[in-house]
Each structure stands twice: as C-alpha cells, then as structure tokens.
Amino acid sequence: PVPSKVKKREETSKHHRNQSSFPIYPHSKYDYEFPHFAQPSEVGQFSLDQSSFGKGRIYNDARKLKFYLPPKDTRRCNFDLGKGYKQFIKKDEDIKERLDNLLKWILENKELFPLNEDGLIESLKSDFVMWRGHLTKILCTPYIKDSWAMAVSLFHGTYFMSEVETEENEKRRKEMNEREKEMTYWGYKFEQYVTSAKKDENPNTSEPVDNHDAFCSVIRSSLKKHQLLYSGEVDCILAESIKKPPGNYVELKTSREWYTQRNEDNFYRFKLIKWWAQSFLVGIPEVICGFRDDDGIVNRLKTFPTFEMAKQAKRYWSGAVAFNFCEQFLNFVKEVVTVDDAKKVYLFERKPNSSEVTFRVLEDPADIFLPDWFTSNFTT
Ligand code: 0WD
Ligand code: CA
C-alpha cells in the first residue's frame, strides 16, 4: 500500500505541477479570500493615431486624452449613434498589432528601468507585460464561456503575453452583416457625443470618427506575488476633479436599453463583470453607460461606480473567484513557460465553453511576437 504522506503529495502535485491543462471549474476551487491586488499606479501615458500602426510611432504624451462633457440633461439625450457612419475611418482588423505599441512605449521610456553602461535594459522589474484587455478576459473566464488564446514568451525574466484571435472570434468578425458592422461604430460615436479635446469646447459630432485614435495609460500593479505591467485604453478624464490619474478617468460604454426583467438580469450577469474587471484593473472609479434603443438612439446615461458593481451583481459572480482564478492561472503560466527565449512561443487556449485552459508550443516563426527591434535593446 502507498504510504498516505506520499499519496497526498501526488494528489497535490497533480493539480499544480507539469499539467497540460488548467481547470476553470468548479468555482469552489477559487472561492476563497480576495487575493492581494495592489492599488493600480500609473507609470506612463501614450497616444496613438493612424500613423502608430505597423512600423509607425507612438506619442509619448496624453494628446489623445479627451475630457468628459456630459449633456445638460442626462435623462433626455437623443444621441443618434448612426450619424456619420459613412465617414467612419476604421482600423483594419486583419492587421494584428500584438504588443507592438506597448513595446514602443517601453523603449521610449527606458530610463524607468535599470540600464547598463551602454543604455541597454537589464530587466523590466515585472513578471508579466500585456494589454489590460488580456487580464480582463482571464478574470472573466469562470463566468463567460467565450474562447480566448494567449501567446506567452519569457524574455529577460518577464513573461510577455499577447492575445491571438481564436478561430471562433475570427469567424464571428468576418461574418458580420452590414447592421452588425454599423453597430460596432455606435460605441465609438457615443464617445464623440460626450467628450471633447478641450475642456471648454462642446463635443463636435460633425467630424468623422477615427478608431485609430487612442489614449493609453500604463499601469503597474501586483497580484499576490506577481508583478504586473499593463496598458489600457482610457476614454476620457473628468475636467473638474481633484483626483490624479487613474482616479479621474472615466470609462464609456453603450448598452441596449432594458425592456424586460430578463434584459436587466442578463446585463448584471454577463456584461457588468466585464465592465468591472476592465475598470477595476486600471483603478477607474466610474463607468458611464449610454442606454440605446435598437435604432441606435441613446436616451439616457447612467453611472455605474466600479466599486459597487460586485455588490450589485453578487448573486451572479464573485470578484474573489475571478481574481483567485487569475492568480492561479498566472502561477500555471510560470510553471509551464520555462525557457527564457523571445523566439519560443507558448499558446494558452480556452476553447468555447471549455472547462479548462490548455497549452502547446507554437512552432511557426510567424507566431513570434517579440520583434528584434525590441529585444536588441536588452543586455545579453
Ligand atoms: O486584443 C486586444 N485587446 C488588443 C488590443 C490586441 C492588440 C492591441 N490592442 C489595442 C487596442 O486597440 C487598444 O488601442 O490595445 C489598446 C488597449 O487595449 P486594452 O485597453 O487592453 O483593450 P480592452 O480593454 O479590451 O478595450 C479597451 C478599448 C475598447 O473599449 P470598450 O469600451 O469597447 O471596451 O479599446 C478599444 C475599444 O474601444 N479596442 C479596440 N479597438 C479596435 N480594435 C480593439 C480592437 N481590436 N480592442 C479594444
Ligand atoms: Ca469604452
């Protein structure tokens, strides 16, 4: 018979070491005390426009940050989100940006990191580097059945994570009909109705919407022992606030008006968790939603304070489960990804509705996402 001590160790290791899959369920596995998550702190800002894509440049400043300028009566707005759709200057989503703009920010801000005599970066002093949106997806995994795939490379002691579009998501994107395409415009048009480049100027809804334009905040935080460096796109800032970023940032959303109790329940169940995770990660205190009808007309705005969302949706999801799942998943990534080599790419995949995250090594050089122009700035 196997001595009980040995058996016990084997059972524990089965769940923690050298496994090719990581479990998502049951929730009870992750239902314990909320893990320590450090107050997100802003360490940089950058802006993007049409010229930032591909080999283009970023602006190491907040030139694309807009001011939040709500209408006088937030219960009767009458915003037509379809206005100007024909003039939409739309990003080509077939071009994959991966981490490029964030890597450009790192190189433009080398002095924030320890350098050697030749000005080469010794270390990023972070375990993980990624977009905020990647962490949002990981956090929501226990409650949202959508597929995702994250590529990971370990380089100079940092795990870089870059999302890869899944087959299902690509299919959904490519098979959008004309109305669905127009609906993706609505969210950007809403931003234009309530923001302005100058705090003393009214929103201008006559100019074309260009979704290449973006303002990104770069954040440092930590989740238990994992140090995190990530960047997220921020919609606007409160003009009159005594708070400093990210405490004065505002996230804008649109959502279909609630016509039935079921509409409202589904909103709290499936949508609010995404909004909560996204804004909580950056420390954005409020999300302002424009409720629209099926013709794309917004009639009212509603503010959702980030710190109340988890309470409001307590019957549907737990922030502790989301964060404990994420913390353990990052442990799993560190166990699996062991070779420090920018050209070695591991893929972590969550298939639609699947109860596990699996991994494999990608062998196609086209999947390498840390470019030579980036890695050549590090000590050897
Ligand atoms: O897979 C991603 N999420 C990637 C995003 C891969 C590579 C690059 N990016 C870019 C985004 O375009 C954005 O400029 O990184 C920047 C920041 O991303 P994030 O803040 O981490 O992304 P996320 O939190 O998912 O989205 C923030 C906003 C969205 O606002 P809503 O209210 O819908 O959550 O960024 C925009 C969008 O306005 N956005 C995009 N816009 C165009 N194409 C995209 C996209 N693929 N993803 C996010
Ligand atoms: Ca938004």
Describe this structure in words.
- This protein has 380 residues and is of the alpha+beta class.
- The chain is 28% helix and 25% strand.
- It has nine helices and 16 strands.
- The protein has helices at 4-16, 100-108, 132-140, 167-174, 178-194, 261-282, 306-312, 319-336, 372-375; strands spanning 21-23, 41-48, 66-68, 79-80, 128-131, 148-155, 158-163, 195-196, 214-223, 226-233, 236-238, 249-256, 286-292, 297-305, 345-350, 356-362.
- It has a nine-stranded mixed β-sheet, with helices on both faces.
- Helix 3 packs across helix 6 (261-282), helix 3 packs across helix 8 (319-336) and helix 6 (261-282) crosses helix 7 (306-312).
- The termini are far apart.
- 33% of the residues are buried.
- The model is unreliable at 1-15 (pLDDT under 50).
- Ligand 0WD binds next to helix 3, strand 9 and strand 10.
Write the layout of secondary structure elements.
Layout: H1 4-16, E1 21-23, E2 41-48, E3 66-68, E4 79-80, H2 100-108, E5 128-131, H3 132-140, E6 148-155, E7 158-163, H4 167-174, H5 178-194, E8 195-196, E9 214-223, E10 226-233, E11 236-238, E12 249-256, H6 261-282, E13 286-292, E14 297-305, H7 306-312, H8 319-336, E15 345-350, E16 356-362, H9 372-375
Parallel strand pairs: 3-11, 5-7, 5-10, 12-13
Antiparallel strand pairs: 1-16, 2-9, 3-8, 4-14, 6-7, 6-15, 9-10, 11-12, 13-14, 15-16
Helix pairs in contact: 3-6, 3-8, 6-7
Ligand 0WD is lined by residues 91, 93, 97-98, 131-133, 136, 163, 187, 211, 214, 216, 232-233, 253, 278.
